[in-house]
Write a structure and sequence with these properties.
Number of strands: 6
Number of helices: 4
Strand content: 15-25%
Helix content: 25-40%
Radius of gyration: 14 Å
Length: 132
């Protein structure tokens, strides 16, 4: 029997834009107790969510065409046991993201707004602590 404790896992699903990817990198660096995978939505597959304890979604603009599959998936899957975080650089995008995760019943934390793509490490740590 192995005495190894496996790390919790998280996936960060992004729209692939530069600022959103940059923030995903900062989130990943800050989640030291997690095995984190950053996944642009264009290569995301629904089963990528299965091994994740936590999922985080970020997009720059509301309702990006690349999010069609993700939006549809989240409207038909129950993720009640998962923790979810959303982030963006625009308030309207946060409202959009709140809307698409509502039906999956994941435990949604307060959205993270990184105006101009900037976020202080202390603010990021506080946000993550409230989520996980």
């Amino acid at each position: 029997m192995s005495s190894k404790t496996s790390k919790k896992s998280a996936i960060i699903i992004t729209d692939g834009t530069e600022q959103i990817q940059k923030i995903a990198g900062l989130i990943s660096e800050t989640m030291t107790d997690y095995k984190v995978r950053i996944c642009p939505v264009d290569i995301f597959a629904g089963n990528d969510l299965l091994p994740s304890d936590t999922f985080i979604i970020g997009c720059e603009n509301p309702d990006p065409p690349s999010f069609t599959y993700l939006k549809e998936l989240l409207s038909h899957i129950n993720l009640v046991s998962r923790k979810c975080g959303i982030y963006s650089i625009k308030e309207k995008s946060l409202k959009y993201l709140c809307g698409i995760v509502k039906d999956c019943e994941a435990k949604l934390s307060e959205p993270l707004l990184a105006l101009n793509g900037e976020i202080k490490k202390t603010e990021l740590k506080k946000w993550l602590k409230s989520m996980i």
